[in-house]
Each structure stands twice: as structure tokens, then as C-alpha cells.
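This part of the workshop introduces the protein records we will be handling. A record pairs a protein's sequence with a compact description of its fold. As an example, a complete record with its sequence and its C-alpha cells follows.

_____
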Amino acid sequence: MSLSVLTRYEFAIRLSVLSRYESVIRLLLLTRYESVIRLSVLTHYESVIRLSVLTRYEVVIRLSVLTRYESVSRLSALTRYELGIRLSGLTRYEFVI
């Protein structure tokens, strides 16, 4: 897993090809300019991913019990005032939020 140094104008954080033993990922204190977070290619050992303190209003989103059948989960266009969450490509084996 690699998280590059983010500037205030970067719009994407990508977590890709996570190792099978990574179970908890925390993204803290994102600025209002970071609007897209993509979680891709999750392995079947990643059971809990927490996205905390996305904005100054502190929206907490939890994706729990992710299975090996998941390939892409997307949280799109999160801003200070938006509560909309889009999860795409989910299978019947996934249990989220």
C-alpha cells in the first residue's frame, strides 16, 4: 500500500493491490479538496476499512466485512456538504456500512 504526499489540490487517493493481511486502513483529516477516494482490488482478508474525518464536519463511513468477491468500491464526490455515497460493483456477498 502506498499513499503519496497529498497537496491541498489533489482530488484522488488511490489504495490499490492491498496485501492479504491488511485489515484496517484509516484515512484521516482529508481536506475539502480531496473529493474522490477509490478503493480497488481488495483481497479477501481486508475486513474493515474506515474512512474517518473526511471533512471538517466529520463524516464517518465504515465499510465492513469486505469479501474477496469485491473488485471496486467507489466513494465519489464527497465535499463539505454532500452526504451522497456511491458504491458500485458490489456483489451479493458484500455487507457494507
